[in-house]
């Protein structure tokens, strides 16, 4: 068995191998074992590594990593921020108000109660006007979210000859069909009603500037139901209740129709886009004649004293092949309106008999409201 020569402080014989029967116990005396347990330091060349040497705590040789010292310091000042320089090398920065400086925690700018810069936030909201009727009325115009109802046909008005019109409660739409003098003012006098508070004002007036006849493009569908269309009609800005008087000092109108009109203005939102008309209804007829259903969505658009009425969506069920539920839909209408002045309403017709053969009428008008909310 071979032993390293440096296990003990004393040298072994030049031959590391022991001869058979050789007694060398003297080489392993107590002094040498003591030395084995307490090896001298430091190690010399060829001497085996001791466990205590590997566990010894020694201070590293002073050195740097970029701008970092071997103890992790950058520079010699406390409480400074760190910033990157060329090629991303880290170094100490500075607090300040210029480019490439840092905002300190107690900077006065962080607690300055300045008013925000005026700006806007755009938003879009989808809304649905919905209605339900269990048993719709037959052979009549069924109105949702408004109406157009004629209260005077072929009336005349001129200086000294006012026109009396008995109405209920709504705005008034005046259609000028003919006249000798078409440039002047119509004055509507009666009891007005505030549309927000309901407050009434007796003998109130509303003046309408007239400059031309109205174009009446209304017609009827296959079942004789009226489909409204007006360009350049004259619309009051106020709601009137009961009988009103329409007078003038400078017009001579020989043919005037007066309508009561109401329409949904989407709570006076300015930026409205009407997108979809959706109707579902159930037919419960048990035999002929075949039932029909027509729906017309109208838009009223106002400019000054004038208003135009147009049909922006139509759904038609000319005949019902079988009893059961039906869905009528018109999408992608994309009609832009200003809800502060404009609005919509829906007319639905059923027929042909007076027998209740329709049930569960649901109507929906989908629109989006988009706006820029100003912040100052």
Low-confidence stretches: 1-15
| Largest sheet entry | 12 strands, antiparallel
Fraction of residues in helix? under 10%
CATH architecture of the largest domain: Sandwich
The CATH topology of the largest domain, please? Answer: Jelly Rolls
Tally of separate domains: 3
Cα-atom radius of gyration: 48 Å
Mean pLDDT level: 86
Distance between the termini: 96 Å
- Secondary-structure element string: HHEEEEEEEEEEEEEEEEEEEEEEE
Shape category: elongated
Strand content: over 45%
Number of helices: 2
Can you identify the CATH class of the largest domain?
Mainly Beta
Number of strands: 23
Query: Strand pairing plus helix content: what structural class?
Result: mainly beta
Describe the protein in words.
This protein is elongated. The protein has helices spanning 30-37, 51-54; strands spanning 64-65, 68-69, 82-84, 90-92, 119-133, 141-144, 147-158, 163-181, 184-193, 200-210, 215-216, 219-220, 226-227, 230-235, 239-248, 252-262, 272-283, 292-303, 306-317, 324-330, 335-337, 343-351, 358-375. By secondary structure, it is mostly beta strands. The relative contact order is 0.17. The model is unreliable at 1-15 (pLDDT under 50). It has three domains: 1-46, no CATH class; 124-145 and 264-375, Sandwich (Jelly Rolls), CATH 2.60.120; 147-262, Jelly Rolls, CATH 2.60.120. The strands form five sheets. Strands 6, 7, 8, 9, 10, 11, 14, 15, 16, 18, 19 and 22 form a twelve-stranded antiparallel sheet that branches. Strands 5, 17, 20, 21 and 23 form a five-stranded antiparallel sheet that branches. Strands 1-2 form a two-stranded antiparallel sheet.
């Amino acid at each position: 068995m071979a032993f390293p020569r440096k296990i003990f402080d004393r040298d072994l014989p030049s031959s590391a191998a022991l001869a058979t029967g050789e007694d060398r116990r003297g080489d392993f005396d107590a002094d040498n074992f003591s030395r084995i347990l307490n090896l001298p330091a430091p190690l010399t060349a060829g001497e085996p590594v001791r466990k205590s040497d590997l566990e010894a705590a020694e201070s590293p040789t002073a050195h740097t990593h970029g701008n970092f010292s071997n103890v992790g310091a950058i520079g010699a000042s406390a409480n400074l921020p760190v910033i990157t320089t060329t090629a991303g090398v880290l170094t100490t920065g500075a607090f300040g108000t210029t480019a490439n400086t840092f905002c300190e925690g107690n900077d006065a700018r962080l607690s300055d109660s300045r008013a925000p810069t005026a700006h806007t936030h755009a938003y879009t909201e989808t809304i649905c006007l919905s209605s339900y009727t269990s048993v719709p009325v037959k052979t009549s115009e069924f109105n949702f979210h408004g109406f157009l109802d004629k209260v005077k046909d072929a009336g005349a008005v001129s200086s000294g000859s006012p026109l009396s019109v008995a109405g209920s409660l709504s705005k008034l739409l005046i259609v000028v069909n003919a006249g000798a003098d078409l440039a002047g003012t119509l004055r509507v006098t009666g009891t007005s009603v505030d549309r927000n508070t309901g407050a009434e004002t007796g003998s109130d007036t509303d003046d309408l500037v007239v400059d031309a006849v109205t174009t009446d493009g209304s017609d009827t569908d296959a079942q004789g139901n009226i489909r409204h269309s007006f360009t350049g009609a004259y619309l009051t800005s106020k709601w009137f209740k009961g009988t009103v008087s329409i007078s003038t000092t400078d017009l001579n109108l020989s043919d005037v129709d007066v309508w009561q009109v109401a329409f949904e203005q989407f709570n006076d939102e300015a930026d409205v886009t009407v997108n979809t008309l959706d109707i579902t209804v159930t037919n419960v007829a048990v035999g002929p004649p075949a039932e029909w259903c027509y729906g017309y969505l109208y838009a009223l658009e106002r400019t000054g004293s004038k208003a135009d009425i147009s049909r922006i969506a139509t759904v038609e069920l000319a005949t019902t092949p079988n009893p059961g539920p039906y869905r009528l839909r018109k999408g992608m209408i994309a009609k832009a309106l200003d809800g502060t002045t404009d609005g919509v309403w829906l007319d639905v017709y059923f027929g042909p008999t007076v027998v209740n053969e329709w049930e569960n009428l649901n109507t929906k008008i989908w629109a989006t409201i988009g706006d820029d909310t100003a912040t100052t």
